[in-house]
Amino acid sequence: MPIDATKPYDPDNIFAKILKGEIPCSKVDETAHSLAFHDINPLAPIHILVIPKGHYVSWDDFSATASDAEILDFTRFVGKVARDNGCVEQGYRMLANIGKRGGQEVPHLHVHLFGGAPLGPMLAR
Ligand code: AMP
Q1: Is residue 63 part of a domain?
Q2: 89 in a structural domain
Q3: Tens of pLDDT, residues 56-91
Q4: Which of 106, 108, 112 to mutate to test the pocket of ligand 1 (most atoms within 8 A of CB)?
Q5: Domain tally for the chain?
Q6: How many CA atoms are closer than 13 Å to the CA of 90, on its beta-carbon side?
Q7: Does some domain include residue 42?
Q8: What are the pocket residues of ligand 1 if the criterion is a CB atom closer than 6 Å to any ligand atom?
Q9: Atom nearest to 38 CA in ligand 1
Q10: Is 46 contained in some domain?
């Protein structure tokens, strides 16, 4: 069920639990402000989620309220994770679903990195 991205942050969402160490993840890499881990239900040979460690529901509040240090860290980290995982030469896709019409399911900002195969059209018609 897609979430309402205008709601306040839920500190018990599944990615918050990963950040608190309450449930495991298959970690790819991390920085002071960001964490990358494998998606539990991969939709491509490479499907990595990159999240900020701070409490941001979606790209909307992250882009509006995160500190410059968090935004810099996250932006560079998304690119680094893609490079380090061999996505760049063949090309890849990054995607962030935001709110109800975006189909966002987990109410903590995450960027999907897809790679490792041709990814097809951007959206199904
Ligand atoms: P979205 O629809 O953009 O909110 O995507 C949520 C993503 O989180 C989906 O691709 C799920 O497979 C993934 N996901 C949900 N729970 C976990 C988990 N515990 N570990 C890794 N990925 C997860």
Answers
A1: yes
A2: yes
A3: 999 999 999 999 999 999 999 999 999 999 999 999
A4: 106
A5: 1
A6: 11
A7: yes
A8: 14, 25, 39-41, 49, 97, 103-106
A9: 21
A10: yes
